[in-house]
Design goal:
Strand order of the largest sheet: 1-2
Number of strands: 4
Distance between the termini: 20 Å
Number of helices: 2
Order of helices and strands: EEHHEE
Shape: globular
Structural class: alpha+beta
Length: about 80
């Protein structure tokens, strides 16, 4: 199942909320997430995508995958 790049929720490919960008189709859980992506797609897919982005916070490193994006799973705030 595709993942909404804005909030991290799993979405169906049957949704009408999708955008083609850079040769890839992105699917969204809500019009708000779709609009946020369309306003600044590189924010969500830049640097190889959030799942591959790592950096350090106060001496401890972690991945954004499952951290910042995961806190909204189960209900999008858009």
């Amino acid at each position: 199942m595709p993942i909404d790049p804005v909030c991290g929720m799993e979405v169906s490919e049957d949704t009408g909320l999708k955008v083609e960008y850079g040769g890839k189709v992105y699917y969204f859980c809500s019009p708000g997430c779709k609009a946020e992506f369309e306003a600044n797609p590189e924010k969500y897919i830049g640097m190889g995508g959030m799942k591959d982005h790592h950096h350090s916070h106060g001496g401890h490193g972690h991945s954004h995958h499952g951290h910042h994006m995961g806190h909204r799973r189960g209900g999008c705030h858009h």
